[in-house]
Specification:
The protein contains 13 helices and no strands. The longest helix has about 35 residues, at about 195-230. α8 (about 140-150) packs across α9, α9 (about 155-180) packs across α11 (about 195-230) and α11 packs antiparallel against α13. The protein is an all-alpha fold.
Length: about 280
């Protein structure tokens, strides 16, 4: 029995093997392309870091430590104006609820005009879709700035910003849910001679109801967090109190407010979970 050694393999044998099994030896072009891609990513990453003055992190450690200390050590708690803080939290929840509620109602109606199986007229369908693109393509903060400019400082601007943003997002998701329903149920209702209203009521809505409830609740949770941020641009709510305390250097009060907001969001999340479980069941939770 003979033993094959490396010396016995000629260049012609290697070339023939490459020709028979090109993938086993790798494609030089692909290998070079991968190496060039990684090199580009590394160079771009290093170049991007130049925008952010990373060296400041080394000098900011003392200030960061002092800030954290002042947020943890609470002083003069008797004069923290708790009534204003909890009024701001209540205002934030109301902003999120009202904006989401109005957005949900309008989004459900627009979704039927944006879905392919319920709006056969392409011009109207594409027109509604492009309108929704505008609503959800602009960030909620930008909508907040627009409405603060339009209606002035206060929670009304926050409600309008959440309403417009949620309408765009929810209508897009509702329309996709409508397009994916089981059409047999719709055809069954239509076969009874039902009018359009009854077809929507008994053919479409029962099928999209779990999606409608789940997405609406999630949107309410998300809007509660967003409403806090909207306050930072003057749209009312607890965000305005946070920015006022922050500018005044009252970091312990800022920490107290943020903790309260986190508790509220946790309670809303817990309540939303119970509602989902009640109407949708464990699968939808």
């Amino acid at each position: 029995m003979s033993t094959l050694t490396f010396h016995a393999i000629s260049d012609a044998d290697i070339a023939a093997a490459r020709k028979r099994h090109p993938k086993a030896f790798g494609d030089p072009f692909v290998t070079t392309l991968k190496a060039a891609s990684w090199a580009f990513i590394v160079v771009y990453l290093i170049w991007s870091l130049g925008f952010f003055e990373i060296g400041k992190l080394l000098n900011a450690s003392d200030r960061a430590w002092a800030l954290m200390t002042r947020m943890v050590i609470w002083q003069d708690m008797a004069g923290w104006q708790y009534a204003n803080i909890y009024k701001g939290i209540a205002q934030t929840i109301a902003m999120a609820f009202l904006g989401t509620f109005l957005g949900t109602i309008l989004a459900l109606g627009l979704a039927f005009f944006a879905a392919r199986n319920t709006m056969p007229v392409g011009v109207i369908r594409h027109g509604v879709r492009r309108l929704l693109d505008v609503f959800r393509g602009i960030d909620q903060i930008v909508w907040g700035l627009v409405f603060v400019r339009a209606v002035g400082l206060g929670p009304l601007a926050g409600v309008l910003a959440i309403f417009i943003s949620d309408t765009g997002n929810l209508a897009k998701l509702y329309s996709e849910a409508i397009e994916n329903i089981d059409r047999k149920q719709v055809e069954g209702v239509r076969a009874t001679g039902a009018d359009t209203g009854r077809i929507i009521r008994y053919g479409y809505l029962p099928q999209i109801l779990p999606v409608f409830i789940s997405l609406s609740l999630y949107s309410f949770e998300s809007s509660t967090r967003s409403a806090t941020i909207l306050g930072l641009v003057g749209a009312g709510g607890i965000g305005m109190i946070i920015i006022e305390r922050f500018r005044a250097g009252l970091f312990d009060q800022v920490a107290f407010v943020v903790l309260n907001v986190l508790v509220v969001i946790a309670i809303i999340d817990w309540g939303s979970g119970l509602i989902r479980k009640r109407f949708i069941g464990e699968r939808g939770h």
